[in-house]
Amino acid sequence: MGEVFLRLLLVALAFVGGTALVAPATSAAPTGTTIDDATSAKLDELLALRGSGKSKGELIELLSSRFLGTPYGANMLIGSATQPEELVIDFRRVDCFTYLDYVEALSRSSDRDQFVANLIETRYAGGRVDFANRKHFFTDWSHTARTAATDITAAVSPSAVTVPKRLNAKADGGQYLPGIPVVDRDITYIPGAAVDANVIGQLRTGDYIGAYSDQAGLDVTHVGIFVATPEGPVFRNASSLAAHNKVVDSPFADYVSSVPGILVLRAQ
């Protein structure tokens, strides 16, 4: 079962998790934010790394590398159609989406206040911490304000395929997330078999990669970060696989060969 699918399923079943939390979302900028000691210390460490003179991709690579080995935690966010949304900030465990949320927000921030504001803007449409405003789908990052990244999938490969999707609508007519409307959206992906050396050569360190889902109602099943290393390109991701269960670097070609295709979002 895909990791994003699992996350959606857990939310739909109203299971909630996560232990480091902030105030319930009743305003655009929650006050009284509390962060556990381990997360607080790591946040300061990561903010100090940001510095100057680094490109966006270099920042994403540097910041994301500091999460390698961080345990995977399923369903880290708190909130549903029936439970008030809370802003979760917890670096002790991450799922594939919260990992990207944190890295993207950190790449834009030089202090704690900026990080909290940027995390809210990255995770929620319109900067309002609310379950209905949460960016539940990977492509929300390129379609929903504030836009965190640009979808460059079609430009990366002439083999890219565009299919119409009804996000959040199950094949049987139900919904993955009660209380969230169905969104009609064209999803462009590159079939796995077409991700060759030419395609990989056009990717940049720091590109956000989604594993295309061929299931109705979903855009991707997993997300991570493309990183070019001296040993070859890797897919940096918070993996729930039993062999990992943590943030790891997986050989990019090996990962792509295991999924129907990929979507590529480039951070702005």
TrEMBL record:
Entry-linked Pfam families: AmiA-like
Signal peptide: 1-28
Gene3D superfamilies reported in the protein's UniProt record: putative xylanase like domain, Putative xylanase like domain
Keywords (A to Z) from UniProt: Signal
InterPro entries according to UniProt: AmiA-like, Papain-like_cys_pep_sf
The protein, known as: DUF1460 domain-containing protein
